[in-house]
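Progress against Task 2.4 (sequence-to-structure conversion) is shown through the following example record, which the project officer requested during the mid-term review.
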Amino acid sequence: MTRNALTLAFLLFTHILLQSQTTPVLMGITTRGGNANTGTLFSLSPDGQDYKLRHHFDPVGPHALRAGLTLGSDGLLYGASLRGGSSESGSIFRLNPDQGSFEPLHYFAESDGSEPHSAPIEGADGKLYGTTAAGGNHSAGVIYRMEKNGSNFTVLHHFSGTDGAQPQGILHEASDGRLYGMTIRGGTHEDGTIYRIEKDGTGFVSLHAFLGFTEGRNPLGGLIEDQEGVLYGNLSAGGPGLAGTVFKIQKDGTGFELLKTFNFSTDDGNQPFGTLLLASDGKLYGTTFSGGLSYVGIIFRMDRTGENYEILHEFTAPEGRNPFAGNQLTEGSNGALFGTTNRGGTFENGAVYKINKNGADFAVIHHFSNEGKQPWSGVIAANGKIFGTTSLGGNSNGGIVFSIREDGTSFELLRDLSRTNEDGFAPSAALVRAQDGHYYGTTEAGGDFGFGTIFRLQPDGSSLETVYHFDGLSGGLPQSELLAGTDGLLYGTASQMGAFSNGTIYKFDPLAGDFTLLHTFSLVGEFGASPQAGLIEGSDGKLYGTARSGGSTGAGTVFRLNKNGTGMEAIYHFIATATTGNTPAFTLLEGDNGMLSGVTIFGGGATGQPSGTLFRLEKNGSNFSVLKNFDLNENGSPAGSLVSPGDGFLYGMTINGGDNLVGTIYRIAADGQTFETIHHLNVINGISPQGALLPDPAGEWLYGLAKSGGEFDQGVVFRLQTDGSQFEKIHDFEGVINYDGSSPNGGMVWVAQPSANHEKQPLTGLTVSPNPTNGPLHLSWSNAFPAGEKATLTVADATGKQLVKLKGNVRELDVLLSNRSQSWTPGIYFLRIETKQGFFSEKIIRQ
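Structure tokens generated for the chain above:
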């Protein structure tokens, strides 16, 4: 956008405000914080007063439960999901088996691990320890530690491949206080390893690298220890019989010995996928995935010496088949063994079974139908009950957490996990006002496919509505603000996904709801890759943008294309080793002279520590020049796009550097001749500013966001006079503990303050009964009530903690509420239903 166009936009917006006799407010987003710690939409007045949380973004709920559960010393159940969270990399959660309250503790990102296949264990120190099969510094998995409340998450070790890769089995805390585990790949022979590590993350040692042909390979379960300190485990494949083995080994890595070799035959089991059980009789018990007469798995036992091996039971499909990975068997209070099968049973969705240790009295105590299906892991026993998970099934096919009494009665669905969310989460870009008067924004993740969404708000900033779900092929993880084109269409970039997994350019018609893919980036292509920045419409009507990588040297490009997607060309290629800078990550700005200005975040010609450049070039790519070389210690690295309020200067921010090494605000004359730092941020007033500054219509103040720092170290909103003479912090974010936002990002936009006419009104024609109740609740509605419209139902307990959040029409919510309310314990609950038209709320007394 040109400076004149920006000034015209300010004048137009001011005219709108005067015509409507309303007061302007600032609206922005936070990437974290809120009810689910996955972002919020907020507004506040120009002086920082009247702060309001407008919307809480929801995460993709945990789903794909391939891990079992751990019973903590606090009586709560702890588990892990393979998928879910802001980057769809999985989560750690806890659940109160008595009250049914569910709480996500940590959402994984690639940097700290992804795809946990096993539940965390509780160490003797009361902390949780676990592994992920992917993610981390080398994409080979990690070992992590965290408090039971989800705080102080720490990666203890990043697997590299040579020391093992893809740990899937549960950790074991041995009698020496160290943690022991196995990886399914990596090591000297790429067949997996045994490792140990101290609980503080020191002393990591690969104790043994499996040799697949002679010992077996690819352990999917964990290790167990006997009273003499010997470790035992299963290998799922390989070995002399090529179908897996059982082994033992000393804790120092010596004394490796095969106890059992499986063969592919119907005379024995094969492929032991799970963890062994050392039962109260001192014998080892386990299962195999296949083999036996029906070739769908067996249950076996043996002495710890490997002697007296015997098959206790051979599965058949009607009773359950193919017991899978995880903690396969558990011993109940009556001495019986309990486990799960992944498939088979009456509905072919798996089963829960029990068997005596002598092989007698095998019985299926639950056949899964659609309430949950395909349990991937085993179960645990506590207080006369069996607790477990399923990988699929439930209302959204995301899996469930269940319990059942040891006698097979009282099956209870403790938690139905959500696979997707409707409105997306983790927004990171500023909102934009389109010609239709609505405000539009994007979320990086969530939506129907987990790759992000486009959403819109009413002209007063209310009523969030998702208008597009990225499906991966159309792009994913949009990180930049949308461009409102002069043709009434919205244009944007998605930083990842697309046909070549390197991002896309698209346009969206707000009126018709039509999405059009304009360009798909390829890493080897000449146009660049991973467009993190947004687009601008040049004075020539073309679209201009930057790609943070790719191009002729892989250091990023400036590109242009027509609004119909034709004529794509890279007009400038950055060079990593040159003083041009590299990795342009923020949106360009067109000046009055028609030239484009922008910043890079790395490289440049600073004499100290180069950390980016401020550059300028013609729209045809010629006359490229560097106006400023940023130095890490002096100025820091650029943190957002440039802006121009029309006073002859360009303004921007750095994410670090400056007097306090936590960021600065700077300006440079439009002709590039004079650069000055006009403010140095500090811990109290904000750290690491994010997004673009926002001038006020009068051109007196610049408004901005700092991602962290402030009173609660959750970020701030600030304003600064354009000459740098006066700085004010106008809001401190408080974070998830107080259900406020945290980590504000992307910048802000001016919005007309909502009037009372837009406040939601109480809904009529809707009731909930019986109340008080000792049974299920039901919704009732009059014939005139729009029972088919979308609605959101939330339930909180007496402390205000949200227990349930469901989406659907009222007819669907009635069924879900009836099912859920049966398990509520006596007490007071607060129910609320919201639609576009209004809300319904009721205090429920459960007797």
